[in-house]
Amino acid sequence: MRAATNAARLVTQILTGEVWPPLADRNGARPDADGQAFLLPGMGGVTLGVHCGDPATGYAADHLEPGLSIRHRDPRANMALQFLTCVGNTVRTASGAEGFVIGQHAYVLADLPEEALAEVTVGDPVTVVARGQGLRLTDHPALTVKNCSPELVERMPGGTRADGRLEVHVAATVPAEAVGAGAGMASEFANTDLMGAYAGLSEDLSLGLEGLRIGDFVAVEDADHRFGRGYRSGYVTIGVISTGHCMLHGHGPGPSSLITGPAEAFHLVRSPDANLEVIR
């Protein structure tokens, strides 16, 4: 049974931003986890060729942001864009092309068809149809929803089980020790980087997460994201992988927070098809 929500009581706001340019400092190169210098593309701009369902790792990139990286010039309006935009919300470009939000990082990230992305450039305005903050799962009071549109909840496999737990399908379970950058931050802002999550790492750095894809739903163990992001034994946070390959130590592909609460309130089903592609 689909999980009941208070979706009928939510409001929709139209937010705006623009495609933000890639940025760099004058030093250029940075060190990877083994101290080797690298200079690679990643954050900002329009990133072609990487979409939901594609591998999150294996690219010559650092802090890879798929699709559009969207920001507002006014700092406070930009924070509203970060806090109010939810995964699954519709985005529209100036040409009328449509896509959807896949998560937050330093920017709001949106996936569009490849042919539409090829027509967008830095500085183009983007509209976000923001709806979802304030969403509650009315039959699951122990669970807190974060950054999740009601349309996404409606389309995610699973729902309320006869035993009262929320069934959620995930592509991977993430151990607590994988959590890197992003811990301690507001769970409505940016995401949590996962260390040890890509091929080519030495054995002492790998955590078995090399197969993650952009858009995968994951369950982060012992993670409480109700009031920020931190460790709490016996809690689980459901997230969606919104960023890709990172080279900096303590960083990696990152999930944006969706649903968090006590582990016993969930029934997790491992499924390789648990990906944001369900909302296309």
From TrEMBL:
DUF4438 domain spans which residues? Answer: 31-153, 160-277
> What's the source species' lineage?
Bacteria, Bacillati, Actinomycetota, Actinomycetes, Streptosporangiales
Q: What is this protein called?
A: DUF4438 domain-containing protein
According to the record, the segments passing through the membrane are none
Q: Which organism is it from?
A: Streptosporangium saharense
Q: Which InterPro entries match?
A: DUF4438_C, DUF4438_N, TM_1086_sf, TM_1086_SG_dom
Instruction: Please list which residues make up the signal peptide.
Output: none
